[in-house]
Please model this.
Amino acid sequence: MKALWPIRILFLGLCILAGYGISQAPEYVGEQRNAIQGMFIGFGFGGLLIAVDEMLKGFSLRAFSATTFGLFLGWLVALLVDHSGLFGDSEGNTRQLIRLGLFLGFGYIGMVLAMRSNKEDFSLIIPYVRFTRQNEPDNLLLLDTSVIIDGRIADLIQTHLVEGILVVPRFVLLELQQIADSADDIKRARGRRGFEMLNRLQNDPKIEVRIHDGDFPEEKGVDAKLVRLARTLNAKLFTNDSNLAKVASLQGVACVNLHEVSLLMKAALIPGESVQLKIVREGRDKGQGIGYLPDGTMVIINNGQNHVGQTVEANVQSTVQTGAGVLVFAEVRHEIGK
Model:
């Protein structure tokens, strides 16, 4: 992260000053040393720590806690094995080598198992302890790529229909960047729209957006990572992908499909009700015309072929539910203005 570099540079400068100061203090080094040599040692020490920091940039606090806990369990098992009497006949250097091997081996296995586990696994080890915050937990809304490109989540939050903190994983940003850099014009336009929507969300003072650095390298697809992250953060997943929504539901993750929500929000028409709309084109069957309601619902109008391009009043005859939404069949009552 770019915001860390000023801190790193300041830390490196302090290390150089500390190296110089220690080299000029005989009580620490025995006698006064070369100042340049001390500054180089300080620079090397600071540079080494910054390099380690850069290598661990994808290593979250949760991962550090898990590895520490796993290391503790591994060493505990190694200690039990060491005191079990299995190696009681070994003496001297042989015993020390066996002990070193036990602690290194079980420590490594413990850390690996802890990194592969989730919070549900830890609840089995400590069944009556739950590590939860004392105050009210944040309402986290995890966004996938399709919802970011869609952009309707911003309107839902601004109208207070949805409230919470928006969480955008960094691996979703990478997927969005790949779409924006695509050779396909349509995909490239969708990717750029996604970044525009993100800028709109981040620039709105009423909306809090967090970029999450967590990743799961063992998961191959973005969808699997999203489900895993939603379960880890106890967040609600927002998507337009029906398959992702089904997978999340099967794994017990709260998920909202905005496409399904939009279908539910459409007004229900009752047979016999009158609607006004413009017939935009001819229908598939003879004499039919096609029009659309303001919410995008398609209306198939009998005897509407002769009114293409005109606004008419029509009576609803019936409605049919399909996988893509609701189809409305209507009959022309009269043309508006006549």
